[in-house]
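Re: your question about UBL3-like ubiquitin domain-containing protein

S., sorry for the slow reply, the queue was backed up all week. Below is exactly what I fed in.
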Amino acid sequence: MLKKINLRLILVSGKTKEFVFSPVDSAGDIAVHVYDNWPEADWATECVSRAEILRLIYQGRFLHSSVTLGALGLPLGRTTVMHLVPREHLPEPNSHDQRQKSKGGSSSCCSASCCIL
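Result:
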């Protein structure tokens, strides 16, 4: 039997809900599943207009829709926490920040940064 990955998704409001997925499920598959199975009772005020704007954030990074849970190396049979946010487009990588990091410097913007996987 194929083991599953339990995801605890956290909204910006702090509300959470747990879902179970397979390691072959992608971030895009998860967004569609969550949208199609939106927890109306708990997340009614957080409702979005379409699945495509739901984005997952894992360890401070936005996940590209094609990234699978298995590719992230998530533990099977355990709960992993991710943030779920409505966002039209993924942020563009900042070329200045990338140059600074490759030189070993720090970002001049701020201490927090997001990357697309």
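DSSP finds three helices and five strands in the chain. Residues 26 and 66 are 5 Å apart (CA to CA).

Happy to talk it through on Thursday.
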